[in-house]
Amino acid sequence: FELQKVANDTSKSLYDRNHAVYRLLRYGVKVRPEAGENTVTVWLVKWADPLANDFAVAEEVTVPGGDLVSGAKASTKRPDVVLYVNGIALGVLELKRSTVSVSEGIRQNLDNQKKEFIQPFFSTMQWVMAGNDTEGLRYATIETPEKYWLSWVEETGEFADEPNLLDRHLLQLCAKHRFLQLIHDFIVFDAGIKKVCRQNQY
Q: What's this model's pTM, rounded to 2 decimal places?
């Protein structure tokens, strides 16, 4: 399967694998049903009809570490929450108690992206998030340094009255239609750096 082949190509950097996965997600996979037939596009995500996709959330997902060049095994990790669309992990969230800074969750996400941990898991990842009840949610994408992680500030709209800051931010960012729209329309790959939009660019 093309997605697995691209996502698991450890000869390439995480950025390059993630970019290749993004192209498959965004533009579909070209397949030839039979020899001599025209190619058809298989859509991994139904962008035009968000609710036609299969959304799933899993808690405490055990992700085994990959094989390191040295022959050793990378450490197994357990991200707190993983968001799946059609079985593809597209979002990950590290949650912290209200007494622990969101920065801890950010650093945990950044550490998890290292080769000695679960870097291959991030090949398909589009949104990387960390949050707690007091500071709300911060978000970025793969390999984003901590100082560039963003907060989603939206004072109006469907979920603006949600009293819990973390819940409000999650509802605003991860509602099915918006989650897919943000991935489809508001991610760029720019000279080796993957970027997501700020709320005011949405």
A: 0.90
